[in-house]
Design a protein that fits this description.
The chain is built from eleven helices and eight strands. The protein is of the alpha+beta class. The chain folds into two domains: 345 residues, Outer membrane efflux proteins (OEP) (Up-down Bundle), CATH 1.20.1600.10; 69 residues, Outer membrane efflux proteins (OEP), CATH 2.20.200. It has a four-stranded antiparallel beta sheet, with no helix packed on it. Strands 1-6 form a two-stranded parallel sheet. A two-stranded antiparallel ribbon has the order 3-4. A hairpin with an 8-residue loop joins strand 7 and strand 8. Helix 2 packs across helix 4 and helix 3 runs antiparallel to helix 4.
Length: 426
């Protein structure tokens, strides 16, 4: 009959979904080890470290003074004596002149450049720690999500196995008239639905696995999270007051520190652009062998641009507007701190209450009854409808339970992320 090849095809897909086609190793790892692996081997962090070093090199460059300038000239040809590079003095001799000049920054331009370079180094450092904060949040969220999805995956595997036993028994009885065909079709339809849902769940897990492998920089590895569930149960959203969490956020949120530093850099650049409106001074020492009113003339000179046409107005205005924009971004970031922290704490209380309302005995009763229901159905002590209804209820309850538990730990991770402080760590 047509159902057999369909079943074999879907069963093959389930097998392929459960066992990777590409050979992989399994890495059982706890959260601390995963974070250590992340910090020591992530390429994004390495790139950001190089960026900090590049900014530090610009600090060194900003401290350097401009090089002095030496200019010298000598006669190429004397038309009177008709000789190249004439030697001597008088009308038949040559003319030697030289000048040594030094540019002097005025209005504190050099010091302002150094301060901008130092602020940019600080900005790169904050960006590095913000990258750690963001990637660590992704790592921890994916880590716990994979753990609870794997628990749900086990439920599907168990139910699929049970239904396969039923289908196998039906196939043995096929054609003998003991089992109604509509009952066979109904059980197989339920099995195909579970296989499809299981495949979707496996794809979700594999997507998270891919993200986690990129963060940890491991290849061809299936990551199996090891979670201390007892430590997670001890998390209490009332352990810290809202004011404590907010104070930590204002002090430690790296995105807020970045916004403040952008304002500082903008202000420093504004002051620097105003300083550039002041012309720089060039001092010089000169020697002229016989081209001036006396021979062997030594002179001291000074040069400065006259700021008649260019007083750097455009750059000054641009720097001022950039400062205003950076200030607005800082104020927006600060305004979001209180709301994000409050919402994360609110979610933690709500999800913690949900988990505490789950009766452990209720789930354990489901686990105990699962096998008994299968046996009773095989013995025809219960109807097909009761059998499938119990299996569906069992699946939905376990999935909901795992989802609630993940939402709870996710809410605590949100608190850690939005406060910039690891208040909760299993």
């Amino acid at each position: 009959m047509l159902l057999k090849p369909i079943f074999l095809t879907l069963f093959s897909l389930w097998i392929l979904g459960g066992k990777a086609q590409i050979p992989t190793d399994t890495l059982r790892i706890n959260l601390d080890s995963a974070e250590h692996l992340f910090v020591s081997g992530n390429f994004s962090l390495l790139a950001q470290k190089y960026n900090i070093q590049a900014q530090q090199a610009l600090e060194i460059q900003a401290r350097l003074y401009p090089n002095p300038n030496l200019a010298a000239s000598y006669s190429l040809y004397n038309a009177h004596s008709k000789t190249f590079f004439p030697v001597g003095s008088g009308v038949d001799g040559g003319e030697l002149s030289a000048q040594l000049s030094q540019l002097i920054y005025l209005a504190g331009q050099r010091n302002k450049q150094v301060k901008i370079a130092q602020a940019n180094t600080q900005l790169a450092s904050y960006q590095f720690f913000d990258l750690i904060r963001t990637l660590k949040y992704t790592l921890r969220t994916d880590f716990f999500n994979i753990y609870y999805l794997l628990q749900s995956s086990g439920v599907y595997a168990e139910e699929i196995k049970s239904l396969q036993e039923v289908v196998a028994a039906f196939n043995e009885q096929e054609g003998k008239g003991y089992i109604a065909e509509k009952e066979v079709v109904r059980v197989k339809a339920q099995l195909y639905t579970l296989l499809s849902e299981y495949n979707d769940l496996q794809n979700q897990i594999n997507d998270l696995q891919s993200d986690l492998r990129l963060i940890l920089q491991v290849k061809n590895t299936f990551i199996s999270p090891v979670v201390d569930t007892e430590a997670i149960k001890s998390f209490d959203p009332a352990a810290y007051t809202l004011n404590t969490l907010l104070d930590s956020a204002y002090k430690n949120r790296t995105d807020l520190l970045i916004a403040r530093t952008y304002v500082d850099v903008s202000k420093l650049n504004y002051n620097y652009q105003k300083a550039l409106a002041v012309p720089n001074l060039t001092l010089s020492l000169a020697y002229d062998q016989q081209g001036s009113y006396v021979n062997n003339l030594s002179s001291l000179g000074a040069a400065i641009d006259l700021p008649f046409f260019n007083r750097n107005k455009g750059n000054i205005l641009s720097a001022k507007l950039t400062t205003d924009a950076s200030t607005a971004v800082q104020q927006s970031t600060e305004a979001s701190v209180q709301e994000t922290v409050f919402r994360a704490l609110q979610k933690a209380f709500s999800n913690d209450k949900m988990v505490k309302n789950i009766d452990p005995a209720f789930l354990s009763d489901f686990d105990r009854l699962l096998h008994e229901v299968l046996i009773n159905y095989q013995k025809r002590n219960i109807t097909l409808l009761d059998f499938l209804d119990f299996y569906d209820s069992y699946k939905q309850n376990i999935l909901a339970s795992n989802n609630i538990r993940f939402n709870r730990i996710s809410a605590f991770e949100d608190i850690n992320f939005y406060t910039g402080t690891e208040f909760f760590h299993p």
